[in-house]
Amino acid sequence: MNMIEKAKQQAAQVVAAAYEAAVAEGTLPQGDVPAVAVEIPKDSKNGDYASSFAMQCARALHMAPRKIAEALVACMKLDDTYFTEVSIAGPGFLNFRLNKRWYADAIELVRSMGVNYGRSETEHPEKIMVEFVSANPTGPMHMGNARGGVLGDCLAEVLAWAGNDVTREFYVNDAGNQVDKFAHSVEGRYIQELKGENAIEFDESWYQGADIRELAHDLVEQHGGKLLDMDEEERRKIIVEYGLPTNIARMKRDLSRYKIEYDVWFMESGLHDSGFVEETVQELTAKGATYEKDGALWLRSTDFGCEKDDVLRRANGFYTYFAADIAYHRNKFAVRGFDRVINIWGADHHGHVQRLSSALDALGLNGSDRLEIVLMQLVKMVRDGEIVRMSKRTGKSLQLADLLDEIPVDSARWFFNSRAAETQMEFDLGLAVKQDNENPLYYCQYAHARICSLIRKMQEEGFELPESADLTVLSEPEEIELIKQISLLPQEIVQAAADRDPSRMNKYAVAMCAQFHRFYNACRIKEAEPAVRDARMILCAAARQTIYNVLTIIGVDAPEHM
Hints:
Distance between the termini: 32 Å
Largest sheet: 5 strands, parallel
Radius of gyration: 30 Å
Number of strands: 14
Shape: flat
Helix content: 40-55%
């Protein structure tokens, strides 16, 4: 339930009913009038809600907007509504003022819903998959995955809170050229460990990280030099069968530490082994979307507005990564029945968006509408004012595990979710560990702990949190503004889901905590007369629950002590 939307709907109903009554009385003519729209004005000094209905009707009714507004107000009935008055402003704005019952009901809603406050039910929930991170299992999780991991996880969370059926998925690229390079890399280090650094020239294009040496060392521990007696194909098969599951297990460990749990880990190799890639390409061919040239099979991507056509099957008979990607997304829509698929990709993949959507269109899966790609800009890691350089291939990258050793998990999640995906961000490693209000996460967690401490101390002094109170006594400006801020949470979640921008949750959390601090500094609790004291304690509890819920959506703790 959304108290803001409830008030909007009620105001619209009041205006619509007033129009019908005015027509019946003859003070307004019957006309082809638009639906009543109600908004929250930026400045609430004239009212809490406003409608421009009178101005929208001027042409249809051939009357001055102000006259229409006067006729509407004369017919309005506010009994049993959330409004205490309606006034006319300017050329004909209808301004509604909320009554005390709305504020009381807004607090009671938080009390009744508890940890579910902010969740919505939608008339037509979508079955949505959010695929994110999907890093190659050829090395450790690195900083390029850190931002996408949190953005994907938080986006999935707001989509679920907004009433959708959401699945989190990791696509494991355990096939193709990167796996061959991985096998060569580990093989090279394996030979060097057994025979010395000069035994084999380590190709510059191979993976250079310490993790490759560690895997090679493990293989020496397990097999000694036996792998050298095998032919290259068998040796590399053993390397891959050990190395990839080992790396995937480490990925799961690091992501779990990062508070990210997936519903599905989908293996690319399964698409090849089951023949689904071949079947998908055959279907594209059957639809006339392919042609052969130079021994390769091509997709007619240019027919869908792309700059060039794409190879699906090389002349050597191997299917490309693009062919597997098409098959994977066909599986999402045609086999598993997702209504919508959202992928979190790095901005460097922007050229792949239209190609993939077009291929799905060619398959009749309406990829242009049902596939959404959230392109994520790069992150600059800064320490002491200097940029921390990163390079995965050379093994000098700052790994996710390294970051979580240096800063708290909650700080990593908060800061990586603090900007919209399409904006570049600078991650200040120093700010992330600060224990003061300059750190926005600390500021929000402290607000939650402060409320917990307040209620705890009141209980220690014999003032239990009341089960009920007369909430209509809350009338101070800081009380009213805090209740309004609390009531925004359901709407903010829905908007974050609609915009595919979970960073709205961070902004809301900071605004919510700032509003609580203003209330706390202005309104005494223990010293207030009993009725006001009890109402303010319940308001504090509602604020605490709201902060807890929004921090939970972001995936960070809401501590009771700090």
